[in-house]
Amino acid sequence: MRFSSAIVAAAIGICATSISAFTPCRGSIARSSIASTQQSSPLTQLNQYASATAGAINLADEYAQRDVYSMEEFASQYGMQKAPGVELYSDDGSDYQLITQQPIGAGQTILYVPSDIILSSEKAYQEFGGEIQQAEQVLVQIDQGTKARLPLFRLMVKILAEYDQGENSAWFPWLNSLPRVYYNGVLRMLITYLHFVHYTHLDDCFSCLPPYAGWLTSTEKANYDSFVQALRGGYVALQSVNDDMVTQWAYNVALTRFQEVWSPTRAKLIAPMADMLNHSAEPNCEITFDDMGNCQVLAMYDIPAGMPLTISYGDPTNPTPIFAQFGFLPSDCTTLFCKAMHLEPYIKELGIDFKDLLIQVETGEIAPKVWDLFLYHILATNDPGAAEQYYVAMKSGDEATRQQYQDQYFQYTLDSMKQHVYSILEDVDTLTVRAQNFDLNTHPRVPVIVAHNNLVRDTFSMTAQLLEQMG
């Protein structure tokens, strides 16, 4: 589909009467071009859409208004186009999403964002050159595991650099449209009372989560700490790098709004306006990038008028990683991870993915590979030879031998499973009571943590009933 509409290009210094949605309005949004000119440039003119009261972005006020409509104007002037009826919507003035007021057909282009305004980890790497290369070398020395996350590091650097420029940044309207606060595992919330700033106790929040969720959130926090340590080495010229509030915000913006591509090279990209799509376990949209780096949002199937436009933020069968990364608990999840983090070495040994070790939220039923994991642990602990035979049976698809072991050791496996489930239930109740004793002013994430724990408790309670019925 092609949108036929005229884009008034005077605001960006281009004499044109109309432009296709698939022909980006070209412009250079480079850090050096902004800093090197004193005259009113096309990019400066674009920033007329920024709030008149905005100087720097106010991160201290979590309730600061998100200027999403100036962002939309900014993106439109650079060639972003929407299908008829697609609108930004909020029912509370804080959380925004894209909806359609007109029917959209399957395969139709819903949104087009030109590469010129898309933030790219690869472009950031080229823009900062030797500075970012030195910082990355230090980062990998700090933690070898961060090598796989260098694209995220580059996005964070780009966001910090644009934040430092304030309303002189070409991306100021987009930055000013973003949430000030993220309730995931990285951010230490900042609550301002008069002239005092109080930090929440992040470790306290982690201590109120079951092991799997706590592990995910603490791992993300450790990754953030490594990023900041590398950046504070001074290799990249960033004014705000020593401000915890700013670095946490920049990390979370990158972490929660990127899309990943793997061709021609692996990169993380943020497309303004497309990043307003919310999550669903049954999304109706998909995001694609063409060879030129332009973004298109396509309808996966017919979408009736009045529907939110959604994508998937992650595996819908395992909501805990979504909770850890994005700070919310999906309301439409159907399964949970079995929480057997104490068996992680055996999970790795068997090559089982966490998404296969599930419990059904509606029924409490246990996935077959969870039974495999617990039986393998029993065998490996008590009879390594039998464990090896069971391992071979699982890997080779020898169902007869696998079933023989399951029948022979069923009662042992059942008892081990019961012990695990009742242990989780006891822990979750204890953790929930602990969370509810915290002051919401200093621990504002408590409600979502309690909601997560309640989901675990309700699901595992049904599982316990099923296990008792088995013997």
Mind sketching the topology for me?
Layout: E1 4-5, E2 19-20, H1 31-35, H2 42-46, H3 68-77, E3 81-82, E4 86-89, E5 97-100, E6 109-113, E7 119-120, H4 121-142, H5 150-164, H6 172-175, E8 190-193, E9 196-199, H7 202-206, H8 211-231, H9 244-257, E10 259-261, E11 267-270, E12 278-279, E13 285-289, E14 295-299, E15 310-311, H10 320-326, E16 335-337, H11 344-350, E17 358-360, H12 368-382, H13 384-396, H14 399-408, H15 410-436, H16 446-470
Parallel strand pairs: 12-15
Antiparallel strand pairs: 1-2, 3-6, 4-5, 6-14, 7-11, 8-9, 10-11, 13-14, 16-17
Helix pairs in contact: 4-5, 4-8, 5-9, 8-10, 12-13, 12-15, 13-14, 15-16
Q: Give the CA-CA distance, first to last residue.
A: 60 Å
What general form does the structure show? globular
Strand content: 5-15%
Count of DSSP strands: 17
Number of helices: 16
Record the strand order, biggest sheet. Answer: 3-6-14-13
- Main beta sheet: 4 strands, antiparallel
| Backbone CA Rg | 25 Å
> Ranges with pLDDT <50 over ≥5 residues?
1-54, 188-203
Mean pLDDT over the full residue set:
82
Oligomer class: single chain
Structural class: alpha+beta
Question: Approximately how much helix is present in the residues?
Answer: 40-55%
Plain-language structure description:
This protein has a four-stranded antiparallel beta sheet with strand order 3-6-14-13, with no helix packed on it. Strands 7-11-10 form a three-stranded antiparallel beta sheet. Residues 1-54 and 188-203 have low confidence and may be disordered. The chain contains 16 helices and 17 strands. The termini are far apart. The chain is α+β, with helices and mostly antiparallel strands.
